[in-house]
Amino acid sequence: MILLTTSRRPTRRIRTLCHDFVRSVPNIVRINRGKLNLDGIAERAVELNANRIVVIDRWKAGPGKVKLFRIEQTGLVPVPPLMYVAGVRLRREFEAKTKQVRSLVVTMEPENPTETVRIAEQLSDFLNLPRLPIDEALTKYQASMHVSLDASRRIQITFMFLPQMVEIGPRITLSKVIWEVPP
User: Fold this and answer.
1) How far apart are CA 69 and CA 88, in angstroms?
2) CATH 3.40.50.10480, domain 2-177, yes or no
3) What is the greatest pairwise CA distance in the chain?
4) Residue 45's pLDDT is what?
5) 134, CA 20 to 30 Å: which among 2, 8, 37, 42?
6) Is the distance from CB of 22 to CB of 91 less than 8 angstroms?
7) Is pLDDT of 112 > 80?
8) What is the pLDDT of residue 169?
9) How do residues 155-174 score in pLDDT, each as one tens digit?
């Protein structure tokens, strides 16, 4: 199980993004952070039997970065990559409307650069989701977390309804990815 939370003072857009994640990614639980520090979040995660945490931080009144953590005996351990967000498009901003996703797979374009493949692999491992080529995923899964490059060559993570390949959101465009995450 994965626990999802926000920075201490989330905006409406961050809260909606978290809600969209819960509807798009199976086995994820969202909590309101309130005044909890990271240790408090870890304790709450243990109470909920979650062993991984995703924190969406605020930057300039919107989602600014996505941090991944594992809960280990020594406490919270940051997991790469640290993803800086350039922009977000929420589920409500897409025409296609769907219910909660029950089966999700991580997909990517066959000719993706190394950085995109690396992010897809890491998200697949962290979220405990299978990673398949698009053609194999079409018939086996309800939706796809698709990792690709946008027109300006920035990494984009979006959710697609299968087999029609209709974008249902959310869509997260990354401005920077840091692989050397400080402890």
Assistant:
1) 22
2) yes
3) 45
4) 93
5) 2
6) no
7) no
8) 87
9) 999 999 998 889 998 999 99
* Rounded Cα–Cα distance for residues 173 and 8 (Å): 22
The span from the CA of 70 to the CA of 178, in Å, is 17
Name, in order, each residue with C-beta under 8 angstroms of 149's C-beta and a sequence gap of 6 or more: 109, 112, 113, 116, 155, 156
Strand order in the sheet with 166-178: 28-30, 2-6, 52-59, 62-72, 75-89, 166-178, 155-161, 143-149, 104-108
Q: How confident is the model at residue 56 (pLDDT cuts 50, 70, 90)?
A: very high
CA distance 42 to 98: 32
Query: What is the token pair recorded at 183?
Result: 């402890």
Average pLDDT, the chain: 91
Do residues 20 and 91 make contact, with C-beta atoms less than 8 angstroms apart? yes
β-pairing, 2-6 vs 104-108, is unpaired
Nearest to 3 by CA among 53, 72, 57: 53
